[in-house]
Each structure stands twice: as structure tokens, then as C-alpha cells.
Design brief:
By secondary structure, the protein is of the alpha+beta class. Helix content is about 30%, strand content about 25%. The protein has one domain: Adenine-n6-DNA-methyltransferase TaqI, Chain A, domain 2 (Alpha-Beta Complex). The longest helix has 10 residues.
């Protein structure tokens, strides 16, 4: 976590942060994930994907929907901003270090909830790409 804190101090110097837990609302399995929601999805190729949904999607438990709550909206945190932030290599590395599973990787919800998110300023509001794929670099088991 020192690497993450150094990243925050350097890249978002002076920015206040909130834990992701405080910026999102839970969704029960079986519900519908609304269009425009950022999700962290497990895939069968031992990768995690960060994707903003293009349509309403049933929540079957294979992804973690990051449905932003009113506090996030009040702080100008959008799905695009969150996607851009979580796409940074430092964040990707932290997620992969905590990922469990050999085929379907998943990051425990408590780890995701604890991610510090800097409050955006006008200069840090960025448009993100549609999808980011996060994978392990050295996975000898996978190479077999």
C-alpha cells in the first residue's frame, strides 16, 4: 500500500480522498446493474476487466458493480472518472496482488471497498477508454 500512497501523494498532491465504499451503493445478486455503471468483471482467461456497461445487465455475481451514490455525484465522481482512476498501473498492480483464483480471478469486495479515490478537480476529469484488461505478468501456472 506504500506504493499506492506514494502514487496518490505524487499524482494527486493536495487532493482529498474517499474510500470507494463511501462512494458506491450495494446491489444484491439477481438485481439489474444499470447502464453506465462501471463494473469490475472476472473473465475465464484469468484477467479482470474494468468496463462501463452499455446496457442494463442482470447481476449474476460474476462482477462487482460500482454504482455511484449521491455522495459520489456531489463530489463530481463519475463512472468515467472512476474508470480512468482505476485504470492507472499502480491501481491495476494493487488489484492483481490481491486477486484470488487461478482461472476466474476476483478481488475480495473488502479490498475494492478500501481503495482510496481522490476527489477530482477540473484538471483531473478525463475521458477513459471503454474497457481495460488487467492481467498477471508472470503466471507460470497459466503458461502450462
Amino acid at each position: 500500500m506504500d506504493t499506492l500512497q506514494n502514487f496518490l501523494n505524487k499524482t494527486f498532491k493536495g487532493s482529498k480522498t474517499r474510500k470507494l465504499l463511501n462512494l458506491t451503493s450495494p446491489l444484491k445478486h439477481g438485481g439489474t446493474i444499470p447502464k453506465g455503471t462501471l463494473v469490475i468483471m472476472a473473465s475465464g482467461d484469468a484477467k479482470l476487466r474494468l468496463k462501463i456497461l452499455e446496457k442494463d445487465t442482470p447481476h449474476k455475481g460474476f462482477s462487482i458493480p460500482l454504482i455511484l451514490n449521491s455522495e459520489a455525484h456531489d463530489l463530481d465522481i463519475s463512472p468515467n472518472y472512476l474508470h480512468w482512476y482505476l485504470s492507472h498501473k499502480v491501481i491495476q498492480d494493487q488489484l492483481m496482488m490481491q486477486a484470488i483464483g487461478s482461472v476466474f480471478l476476483r478481488v475480495p469486495k473488502k479490498i475494492i471497498d478500501s481503495i482510496p479515490v481522490p476527489i477530482p478537480t477540473n484538471s483531473s476529469r478525463k475521458q477513459s477508454v471503454k474497457e481495460v484488461v488487467i492481467k498477471r505478468k508472470d503466471d507460470s501456472f497459466r503458461e502450462l
